[in-house]
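To start, one record:
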Amino acid sequence: MTTKIKAILLDIDGTLTNTQKKITPRTREALLKAQEKGVVLVLASGRTATGLSAYASELDLAHHGGVLVCYNGAKSLNCQTGEVYFEQALTVEQGKRVLEHMKNFDVAPVIDHGEYMYVNDVFFSLPNQDVFPTLIIEYEGHSNNFLLCEKRDLAAFCDFPLNKILNAGDPSYLQEHWREMAAPFEGELTAMFTAPVYFEFTPLGVDKVRALKDTFAALGIDQSEVMSFGDAQNDRTMIEWAQVGVAMGNAVDEVKAVADYVTLDNDHDGIAYALEQLTPELLV
């Protein structure tokens, strides 16, 4: 490649991790080598900062000044210094309205505050999934390193701003009802799928790219020096925005359609393979 890559953006689920939610040794080694060459790694996910911490530790981001972009872009921060580059949250009033509206649907709203993830029912379950476990709330809480707490009425309980509101549900049900879920907030909030079982609300205009622009301005990295990897709908903007956008082999068609390169899937070291093919100079 003629472009010098100074930053690599990485979605987590379906991209950085395989179907067992693990970073494979080959992918980890490639990313550690890239950091040794001065590349800044950015973990960009719908997850919370707490939920990204284990992956950040495994990739030694704190030592190398890596960045976390959380909540689909509602917040970004430096792993080494803790500096927040960007943050935007739903107002208390917006959060209450969304949570009240969600009472009309067979979904499990999830919000977080401090060390807790708050839900109506920690035992909310889904039909058997190929990727996601049936006890989806337990999975979401534990994978993000939160304690779980039940509240009978989340709308009444929530008196603090929220970076996002996640709604877990059966994929077929969400596909049937997401338009009704989103309709009252059109033009006010962003609503999107982040996985077949997750439909989320974030502040209007917030996506991974909005946070990345402020982040890279602070780091002195130009858009032309960025490579991105992703697989899902919420990764599309960063795939389009980066100088080199790479879709995983398991990516949805709309992400593959806008990518510069389609690599192997997340169970076959797609990230490492793309770096070997496109930027071998980073791995020597």
In short: The chain has twelve helices and 14 strands. The chain has two domains: 7-88+206-282, 92-203. The chain has a mean pLDDT of 94.
